[in-house]
Amino acid sequence: MGDILPASESVIERADVSSGKALADHRGSRWVRMFNTLGVLGKDPVLYALGGATLVVGLFTGRERLVRAAVGELASVLLADSIKLGIKKGVTRSRPQELIDEGTYRRHSGGSDFKRDKSFPSGHAARCMAAALGIARFHPGVGKLCLAAGALSAFSRILKGRHWPSDMIAGSVIGWGSEAMVGRLLRMPVAAQLTRKLCRKFG
What we know:
The chain has helices at about 10-25, 30-35, 45-60, 65-90, 95-100, 125-135, 140-160, 165-185, 190-200, and strands at about 90-95, 105-110.
């Protein structure tokens, strides 16, 4: 690793890159490829579809908690995605697969137009954390299952060589912060009143 990373890089980053490479070294094995199918759970179309379907069911069955959970999931994922995109525009970091395949590693300020340089932070981790916590706020039992599924989905991205461990940590923090902000809004009395009106109108 010393001939790839500059001597100025921190011990933490060296450990991050070393562990990420070690985890992704077996990305071609059959069990890893099977595990990587979980990555689809963190894709934005899947999470938006899940939230949208849940919202429709909640509205037409008059279940206010379900509606608020759906709104929380959708808004949290949207906010997390927006923050993630903003950070990616200011950071260039190559992905583990490039280090494994080509022996190169880059990290510096300033964004990149190339997807291979947009490793930090992980959008999968940000979206999964935001969605799971948004659901857990109103349905804790289901939320725990979503957290577990989200964690597996995010971890699969490391095994696939798409992200470093620190990318996942940063993405999870973004997701947690996004849901916390949305959650504060949903706890306001006006949110409950609006939800009740919508359920009465459609239910």
